[in-house]
């Protein structure tokens, strides 16, 4: 099995269906061949299946061609294309149809399907994914931890730096193997959609050789430093650092060239060189590629990326110069036996942090100035701010809402980069202070210096472990049947509370009590706000006033007393009963006529 397939199965088996997610009919069954069929047998089987499944053949046989027949023929043709290619056939045999779709067309896979497959995967498949993250954590932090333990003399006086730096040698082997593979790869072939006169090799052979030579100098410095620390060799520190200086100078040359490159459009480039790009020789194109960055326009994402590339190159120049000055001071102190304070030797490092922060905020100021020229109103400035010397003063730039949002996002992104750089450099300066303190004789362990990284990595690893092992499938229909049953039971025989009270109390109520309840309901209703109308004869007439409500209430009570006194005698006992229960009626009998005023 190929290594890439084995790695895919190790990483992504949990995202494949734990059940048989592929079709029950495999590619071999579709072509009616065995799994060890030869290419010739596959070819004959494909011709036979084409005669049986082709829609035209089915039509000639008098059958109605359905969508299923067309899909089956398309799938049969895809099956032959996969099995006819030895590499794709090996991939299919290892990971199946669904796995091939994930490898060849990852964007066509449904994310919900992947999440469902992962939620139903086995613990073994999840453990493989967690083992990969755990291996990355160990590979990243194993070397720093061992160096710190060696610096604290934890391994004893007989420990050798050559053994402690074993993870470093493993990393060097992998990186050297990568550089050799890139060097042996040969020139990159031109894609079909790019014309030959416009094609430029992104990795020319000269750059590949330079990268390999530069990394070789770094490995040589590591070997010499290890032998010096173990006492195998004894040379001057200035000689030992020569490979390091060469490594830095090669990088410095490339970064200076990148920082000095001009960002131009295609029209500006042709005007500068005096001819079109199609007429240039390959050597001239390579020279142009080293001197210019060609963009479609002097605005947009491509131009911003090119400008950011130059800014990053400027910061790298600052880092390289600071590293060279620091190493020179360190070598002079070690070779001459001077007892300089390491706070003085590390001054270039602190200066580097200040310069990097200043460069980041300078980039932010430049972006803000560019945005102000296009739309001053984004910063609350006068629209005439960017047109003080323009004859058409007061006419703002016609920007759409999308362009304004793009400008805001550009400023926000630049601000995030500036403040992110500032806080990262502050954190770096604190770590450098801990390093200097340890060199000067502080008593804390060296692991304290890298403890923030260990803790942060451990927290991330724990979160990944909880996510990998605790994620499970949730049944959306779970409990719905019980819920619907409870709702149906509660809804059967349900009567609104007010209706229920009225129905229960209806047999016990008399006609007078019903009228009285209706009157009380009307009295309890909220009063309407006062309103007025205009009558030409009577003038302004007010309605819903407090005086009017009192008069209506008096008239209603007087009418009620008249009805009670004029009722038949045979209803007197009932009236007495009702009146004895109603205190208001008792008051009415004592004083049948009264004035609220």
From TrEMBL:
Q: Which SUPFAM superfamilies match?
A: Chaperone J-domain (SSF46565)
Domain of life, per the record? Eukaryota
State which residue ranges cross the membrane: 129-147, 159-180, 211-229, 235-252, 317-334, 340-364, 418-437, 449-471
- Show the coiled coil region(s): none
Q: What PROSITE patterns does UniProt report for this protein, alphabetically?
A: DNAJ_1, DNAJ_2
UniProt keyword list: Membrane, Transmembrane, Transmembrane helix
Q: Which Gene3D superfamilies match?
A: DnaJ domain
Q: Where is the J domain?
A: 26-96
Keyword Membrane tagged: yes
Segments of this protein annotated with the region Disordered: 492-597
Q: Quote the biased-composition stretches of kind Polar residues, using this chain's numbering.
A: 502-512, 567-597
Signal peptide boundaries: none
Q: Which PANTHER family does the record cross-reference, listed alphabetically?
A: FAM11A, B PROTEIN, TRANSMEMBRANE PROTEIN 203
Q: What is this protein called?
A: J domain-containing protein
What organism is recorded for this protein? Thalassiosira oceanica
